[in-house]
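Next comes this protein:
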Amino acid sequence: MSPWRNRHDDKSWVPDAWPGDSATVERRLRDELFAEVASSADMRVSGFDDVRTTVDLDGAEITHLLIDATGVKLKMKPGDGATPEPQAKAETEPAILDRIPGALRFARITADPANIQGYDIRIDATLQNVAFDWARYETPVRADRPATAFGIADADDPGAPSGAFSVRMRADDLGPMIESVARPLMKESGMRLRRLDTDVTANDDQNVTIDAVAAVRWKVFYATVRAHVELHVARDAIIAVKTVRLSSRNPLIALALRLMREELREAEGRRLDLNAEAAADGASRTLRVHDLRVRVAEDIEVSGRIG
């Protein structure tokens, strides 16, 4: 168990040196993990304290990193809708004062399984030979967390990183898990989700079809909404939306869906590049997903390579 469990709320902490020792790097890792969860205005996640972390540092190289969520039970509930202002990130990243070349030789994230909202998800991801810089910024990235003046940045020479990942869960659990997350969110808006049934299929060409039926209640009105979505998942991590159809036998809901017809048509044909989205969100531009695969049978499995 990490020695830093339940101590991530000490916002005044600052590393004595960077990268310092294994314990210092592990604490910064956990600080970042918990800070991101705590800063979400829309969703609160409990259970992350039970995630086990291990960091082995040799000079400026992380020789081994393990994040193990096996047996961890994660629960999600709506946030309060307001993110405290001090935790907001700066609009532009502060200037870097010092850089020390570093490397991640091997990392693994595993959950065999983790339990999310009462449903098991299995995760196995590895990453190796990633070059980066230990960075000391001019000012903290988050004003109320002095330790965020110390972090990592992309190296000028990314080297030859590689890795792989797999995420798997029972196909029959997808609908109930989405329902368990969506139900409290909809309740906040005055709607009640009474039932959600989903069916997901995929063929050898990675054309994915999602059919869903949701029974909802708003005040005294009851309605059933049907959704039909067809996607194509390309091996280079580009998702293309082919078809989006929503329908209801409730005349009021059907009228509202007709008014949304233009938006639904605009959704069809859209392409989502997962690598570009990740880079835009601040993820490393040197790591990209390749050979993305989607398989649906008794289990839904998404896997791919990283390079």
In short: Residues 52 and 72 are 9 Å apart (CA to CA). The chain is about 20% helix and 50% strand. The longest strand covers residues 96-116.
